Amino acid sequence: MRHAARIARGAGALVLAGTATGLAAGPAHADEYRYWSFWTADAPAHGKSPWSYATEGPSTARPEDGGAVGFRFTVSADSARAATPRVAADFDAVCGGTKAADGRKRVAVVVDFGTAADAPKGETPPAAREKCARVPEDASAGEALAAVAAPLRYDSSALLCAISGFPEKGCAEQAGGSSKEATGSAAPDAGASDGDSGAGGPSAGLIGGIAAVAVLGAAAVWQARRRRG
Question: Which of 15, 36, 46, 152 has its CA 20 to 30 A from that of 140?
């Protein structure tokens, strides 16, 4: 039994070490993608709030009245390296002139089309936009975006591909030119634009954590059976 415990501890330590490494850093040369990242900001007491990379997609995130949502077209390999919207999350500045209404909420929507360097070849990003969406109380961030920045374009997996027609084509393509479908790689969490959280699909850290739980759990079951035997 002591031998089994040592094996379990050793296996768990190895997997957990891999987990820590996976969480600390991604691949040194991770593929970069062009995509719409999604950001949120809590409703402030007054003034500006910092942007936070969204932990869920715009179809499920439901900002409160007084909140702000941001969309930035960017090139990055994961959420840790994604560029934030260059326009501040300032509800008062965007929605200060919009009156509240029963059964409706006001959400400041910021759309940053990114830089010329981030844009697909042959396309020029429009100027950033700030608009106030007055939508039903249960509306999602995606519905708030659609209210002020249509048309939106999604792919078959509900990944947000274009806002107000930008970019004209493509969806979460590698910066080198290959699309995510062609390479078989998952695009980074486009601000969880497709409704999922995490960056670049299941991370090494997440997989390692699951494996660690599985190893330790299996060892515990094995030891229990030895005791009963």
Answer: 46
Rounded Cα gap, residues 20 and 24, in angstroms: 6
Q: Which of 6, 55, 1, 23 is nearest to 210 (CA)?
A: 23
Measured distance CA(140)–CA(59) in Å, rounded: 6
pLDDT, tens digit (0-9, with 9 covering 90-100), for 191-219: 544 434 333 332 222 222 233 333 333 44
Query: pLDDT digit string (tens) for 136-187?
Result: 999 999 999 999 999 999 999 888 999 999 999 999 888 875 444 433 333 4
pTM: 0.68
